[in-house]
Fold each of these.
Amino acid sequence: MTSVAAPLLASRPSEFRLRDGTRVLVRPIRAEDRDRLQVGLHQLSAASRYQRFHAAVSELSPQQLRELSEIDHVNHLAWIALDPTLPEQPAVGVARCIRLPQEPRTAEVAVTVLDAYQGRGLGTLLLGLLSQTAAAQDIRTFRAYVLEDNEAMLRIFRDLGAHVGRLDVGEYQLDIPVPEDPGRLPDTPTGRVFKAVAARARREAAGV
Ligand SMILES: CC(C)(COP(=O)(O)OP(=O)(O)OC[C@H]1O[C@@H](n2cnc3c(N)ncnc32)[C@H](O)[C@@H]1OP(=O)(O)O)[C@@H](O)C(=O)NCCC(=O)NCCS
């Protein structure tokens, strides 16, 4: 792992402010987040659940919850955002990627943000954090399956230079380069968030 990504993986959560000033705590996901994932799924609108799973998922089994929260952060990486203003600090967003065994430098990626928190830059922030730790694990490409009407997700991935292929009716397969040096990303909204995340990681690595 590179020295830049290591502090981001530290157990202490980092606080970020979203575009509208909303505070969130972000950290790599842990086993204790199992219940947060189920509660979060229940709070997600049916439309968002469909965009995420491409199916009408309304409940995760105990085994699925374990698989999504007890992860190695090498082949399966995930970041969770919590709302620090509420007593239980519920999950408000997750970005995860899982390495493909047959293409070990590629990982399937998915991002989910609760409807009430969408459109404030949280999805971009979580993906920026995930990119840093994925790059440190030698993951070079994110692969995503995105429904064609998912403007927000397509916007973020296109900003990152995604190669977009039509997979099936209504669905795209995207291959997104994981930025090795976010500083060289173009000056888009996504590029700016990724640069800010990288700058924060550098500051924390330097102990500033
Ligand atoms: C897709 C998703 C993760 C994006 O998260 P988010 O926090 O809302 O995204 P951001 O606020 O970072 O916005 C990303 C960009 O999309 C744009 N955007 C947001 N909602 C949009 C919409 N409905 N239509 C068009 N563009 C939209 C934003 O304006 C932003 O661009 P900008 O930075 O230039 O303004 C979130 O909407 C979500 O969880 N959707 C349901 C699950 C899902 O679709 N997951 C993807 C599976 S791969």
Amino acid sequence: MAGVAIFSPSGFGAGSAAATAITIVDQNGRLVPNTPPSTISQIFDVTVGPNGMLVFSPDPVNISVGDTVRWTWGSSGHSVTSGNPCTADGQFCSPNDMNCSAGTLSNIGAVYEHTFTQAGTYSYFCASHCGFGMTGTINVASAPMAQSAFSRKVHGGAGTFDVPLPLTGNVGVECRTGPTYQMIINFASSVTVGSAMVTSGTGHVTNFSGNGTPQITVNLDSVTDVQRITVTLMNVTDGTSDVPVADVPVSMGVLVGDVNGSTGVNSTDVALTKSQVGQTVTNSNFREDVNASGTITATDVTIVKSDVGHALPP
Ligand SMILES: [Cu+2]
């Protein structure tokens, strides 16, 4: 429960929910990437003027998008007013978010809550005691989201080629032979991943690497053909915050021989592969090198022929 700051001397419950990630599945049973708020919302308690001191405690408070801060008055004659000290900006204020510039003061035992729906840094102050340094800060972090994902294979001496794995919509189809595959998942900034596992489909995560960088590499083995497989990165954080955040699923269709990515293997795939035999493997024809040998040969044609009739399950 890193990042949970609880301070409730007046007998209010801690009220923090378990940091369990929600799994969302679409109508096809495919995991839907989480969007913030990605974890169950939590309540963070702050005391206003504890024991008459002109402070907000604790301060600062680090939360995630969707979390709520609950201020409880420990002494009388204070306000919670958003804005860079000491000017109200009208984003939120006690007691009811109305007429914030008035700086309405509340008394001991009062409670005011605000839920933060946008990432950012929020300053607030007490309208009566701002000049005495009675100010606070709420840091609201958003969950890191994957920007892109790929299935990567080395094609012998021809180089490394990536099949895009879209994070929404139709799955990317990996047409090259297994049973080992490598997923590359890119983020906008450096991340730390707690673990990686196959959460649906048949396969096994051998290992993963890249913590502390924007790119996570997951090595898979025992991945079977003709299936949808989902790998989920668990407890992904942005590395600068200790707030627990989303699980990031990445799905892939595995259909060896489906060189045109139509989700079925048929005579078109055979013909496409035949047409590339002897050609140099490039970004435009690497899918026809279905055994990732670095050359497109009769062997690739034989593999595709043997898979005719296979279709990606729904
Ligand atoms: Cu005050």
Amino acid sequence: MFQVMIGLVVHSQGDPRVGQHIAELLAPGQGRAANVDGSAAGIQPEGHWVNHRRSIRPDGRQAAQGMPGKVGVLGIGEDHASSLQPQPWLRSSPYSERVNRDTPRRVERPDRPRPGTTRMFATAVPGMAALVTADLEQLPGVHLTDAGFDGGSDLVLFDVDRGHRVHLQGLRTIEDLFAETGRTTRSDGDLPPGIASRAWPPDGVEKALSAWSAEVRPLSRTMTYQVIARVLQKRSFPPAELRKALGQVIARDKPRWNLASPAQLEAWITEYQPGRLIAGVRLSDASAPRPDSQKAARPGTLPPTVAAALVGLAGEPGDVLLDPCCGSGTILGEALAAGWPAVQGIDIDPEAVQAARRSVPGAGVLEGDARSVDLPGETVDAIVSNLPFGPEYEAKGDMRIWLTGVLNEMARVTRPGGRVVFLVPSIPNNVMPRDLELRRKEPLRLPGLKTRLWVCDRR
Ligand SMILES: C[S@@+](CC[C@H](N)C(=O)[O-])C[C@H]1O[C@@H](n2cnc3c(N)ncnc32)[C@H](O)[C@@H]1O
């Protein structure tokens, strides 16, 4: 009989439970993890992160979208030698603590463009960089180069091989996509004009505009443009000075272009880590509504990119996905787009039910109470929900009692091995039902609201 050994190299910051946990994920009930020297802990002192969250489900099914039948072992290989060093990325984001731990270290030298690639970056809701990174890693021809937080958004930087930009069109977790013109660092005393001209070098601009004309519209000799600037260390100079400086650099480079607002082309320059800046032209139009959701947006509606990420965390589409507090149905729309065949929504507010039915006609939406769902036990493969907490929506009565009722009901209707993903700022002690095993918890900043993401497996 053959014995097959599969290796996962895991960085656990010394927690000896992690190796066993992964072994259990791989082979429930019979997993065994070992150190490289054969001792039975499964921990190496320093190694790579394995993104097992998206790769393996406890029932043995593979959870990451787009990689059927493969177990992902990420960040291993000589190419990624630099990934062995702990990276300082994202430390600046208060919403990205977990990103450092969960993001596989496929970081390559940021300052050297790969030949034949387009240098790009994407912005995401703060706290989402790890999820965006995981999505990008699934795409062929995409190489992550760096990441950060510019005070308003998470940023993920990457190179895309020739002919592979098309794959980015399916990305639903990013807010905006950019073709990079240039990146630079600044030191004390470095002033906006110097930074702006380094971030707008002729060869980088030519490449970025070629991507822009391919993705957005053909370039013309006279164009309108505007500049957006973000600076982390505002004590040195305000963002307006950097915006003005980049505007002047562009005016010298493209004398027939005119500043305007709104404009045909947006040039961004942003400090994504302290002292590190990147500039680029925006390829996406975030103001355009998605075709399949948001038709009846109400206050408190989730950004579709976040809804898409939550749905992604529910794993590969099974049969039934439920949102028991569906509001206008953003999550339902993203679940259908992700390929869930049966998507169900419930909301206690009849207006929300009407809105969700209008927005997402492909979903089944019923008026009801998340504390007593009209479904038999263990019939749902995944629950994904943005629970009613925040300025617009407050659950009525005692939060602890309300949450206890909703979480117990979520556990009851989900089948063992199913996934329960939700947003709520906090969960009081002893409220999480025993049937739900917490896998992941991290902060997320929605417009006007700091909340938390919770990912649980139904035992
Ligand atoms: C934050 S909103 C959800 C927004 C939704 N994710 C979206 O993007 O449109 C929370 C929703 O929970 C609903 N809700 C409040 N209490 C509920 C309950 N007991 N059962 C079901 N829905 C409830 C509210 O009516 C509201 O529509």
